[in-house]
Amino acid sequence: MATIFLNGEFLEADEARVSAFDAGLTHGVGLFETMSAVIPEGGEPEVVRVLDHLDRLAASAKALRLSDDLRKPALAEAIKRTVAKCGLPRQRVRLTVTGGDLNPLSAARSGGQPHDPMVMIVAQPATEYPDEMFEQGVVVGIADMKANPFDPMASHKTLNYWARLSALQEASVKGAAEALVFQVTNHLCGGCVSNAIVVKNGELFTPIVRGEETEGGLPSPVLPGVTRAEVLDNARRLDLMTTSKMLTIDDVLDADELMLTNSSWGVLPVVRVEAQEIGGGVVGEVTKKMREMLVVG
Predict the structure, then answer these.
(1) Cys-Cys crosslink for 102: which of 23, 39, 55, 285, Cβ 3.0 to 4.6 Å?
(2) pTM higher than the cut 0.70
(3) 188-225: buried (b, 16+ CB within 10 Å) or exposed (e) per residue?
């Protein structure tokens, strides 16, 4: 059963309503974050890396002119309250912020007058993944879609996930757990719903994300993943070298290990890309260690 917090109040699923004029529905104007949460027995609710998620959301909201003043402490408190009310020991939490009852063209003509965004938090049972996915690794495909570095929305977690979900659905039909997305320049972005990390000779390599671009270089269409950042920090604690760079399909296929990260599954080992085995088709030691070290819900 889901617990829903909508615009300041808790509602039952059959009571939660969004306006027919909400900009998220009419124009796809909105952002979201997906988080993991736990309630330890006898303990307080814990939302994994909640401040990192809210920092990313607020930065995107400002950059895309959705809102300049999202109140992160209030959002964090609302998320915690929603998790507590849900009460399940392991939860998946989604925070969605849209433009509310806003006509984007009218707002542009009026100089972007302040408006009230729609805020919805949904807490529900955490997604359960088979142990085999992590013990044996998964197969991934290669998506037909290409990311455009000049698309200003590409590196933000906007509501427009249709292309990615369609590619993920196509991969699933072929028996793959994910699909790798490349840029129009044929450089790796990551998975449809994940960031990618390649391991070669004990070093970790990952695509350049938004905010890591070099001066004069192309803008990155890659979302700066919250889980990705923690995995790279953990690797550096073990004195492993980490490098953000433009990666090609050859870098991927020649890798000793390949892992995909997101807030739902944490670290997911990849042992085959299409017909090509990665690392002899077994889960690598670095990937295992990164999964052990990661704090997950």
Answers:
(1) 23
(2) yes
(3) bbbbbbbbbbbbeeeebbbbbbbeebeeeeeebbbbbb
